[in-house]
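Quick one before lunch.
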Amino acid sequence: MRADIRVKICGLRDAAAVQAAADAGAAYVGFVFFPKSPRHVEIATAAALAKEVPVGVAKVALVVNADNAQLDAITDAVPLDMLQLHGSETPARVAEVKARYGLPVMKAVGIATAADIPQIDRYAAVVDQLLIEAKPEKAAVLPGGNGVPFDWQLISGRRWTVPWMLAGGLTIENVADAIRQTGARQVDLSSGVESSPGVKDAGLIARFMAAARGD
Ligand SMILES: O=C(O)c1ccccc1N[C@@H]1O[C@H](COP(=O)(O)O)[C@@H](O)[C@H]1O
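Model of the LGQLAAA5 complex:
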């Protein structure tokens, strides 16, 4: 049993999906602000959805290389608990965003080979949380949410100075193995609980939570 595992369900676009994630026991829900993604939500939609999120479930805004104007618009309208930076933001930009908005910041770091591992330490110095996820292919349209895992052995036994989440291609079938190999205490996923791109499935969310906890 892994009853204390914390799960983030990302890319929620409607009230039913928010309810399903909360009912299943998600610790975080994510709203994607990236128009190229099938999970993109308009700011007004996210603002309405955020009001449906029960107290105790953290609301996370995912952005990709957002400028201050986009972040101002999001943070003015949507009650948030965390910002997730999922582009090529530098450590300096991460620190700037953290200072400007006064919200905890989680930075996604893409991993494909051992050469990518030192990047994690660079960001650990400036973030509140790390999101360690699969590095997208060069031709990928999305910098995340591609449903592709990385070689978990690359981070097996490693620890960082801040809390971290594992992401990238997690599914009902592989999450227990991913947790066992990496020692992750938090996991994040998007496509693994969808019936089609951008459409969350309540049954898959519940089954994923059970698989993550080892019920
Ligand atoms: O979900 C998206 O559409 C998305 C778009 C742009 C950047 C990141 C995105 N999602 C994040 O990627 C990870 C992994 O997703 P998946 O489980 O492999 O589909 C996910 O946890 C989101 O935080």
